[in-house]
Amino acid sequence: MLTLDxxxxxAPDQPxxxxxxxxxxxxxxxxxxxxxxxxxxxxxTLLRTLNNLAPVDKGRILLRDRDxxxxxxxxxxxxxxxxxxxxxxxxxxxxxxxxxxRRFSRRxxxxxxxxxxxxxxxxxxxxxxxxxxxxxxxxxxxLARTLVTRPEVxxxxxxxxxxxxxxxxxxxxxxxEISDREKLxxxxxxxxxSHARKLGQVVLELADGKLNELS
Length: 215
Known about the structure:
Blueprint: E1 2-11, E2 14-27, E3 32-36, H1 43-50, E4 58-63, E5 66-67, H2 73-79, E6 80-83, H3 94-102, H4 112-118, H5 135-147, E7 153-157, H6 165-182, E8 185-190, H7 193-199, E9 202-207, E10 210-213
Parallel strand pairs: 3-8, 3-9, 6-7, 7-8
Antiparallel strand pairs: 1-2, 1-4, 4-5, 9-10
Helix pairs in contact: 3-5, 5-6
């Protein structure tokens, strides 16, 4: 469970403009939430706030009733994993991308082959440069990387924005499969209503500093 408790958050470099205004909302465990919003409304900043990459101005973000501002950053990164719009380190191999995420994991051993299987990629790709993969494959690598730490919460920033409709559909199905299998609380933001409806069990809109559920 992840809760915004009377959260105020200003826009980057615009301290007088608030993305979140006294916002209170609880994301329940093992559910998939889609957040809609127009360009520039602050969807990415909201996600960064949810794992304390962008600390709130006022209020609290609670992970299982614990204020994430009071937790060690490593614990927050392990528990709340985030995938950005352009997250792959294209200058690295697939294995190096996964190794990068392992620094936040408490596990000494991480089976990269199994991770790739979970996102429907062949283990033969481990030594391949990410730059040589298709955009859809790159996104799958990034999803695998978010699973390295066995998070409780998965945050996705426009995960299908750079994909064609067919590939986007496959990625949305994969996210749903992963969320169900790993029993994750998944929160993804998008400007595409069709994608929000396809994947989100609960669809929200970020507008006027609040999160409002849509019917």
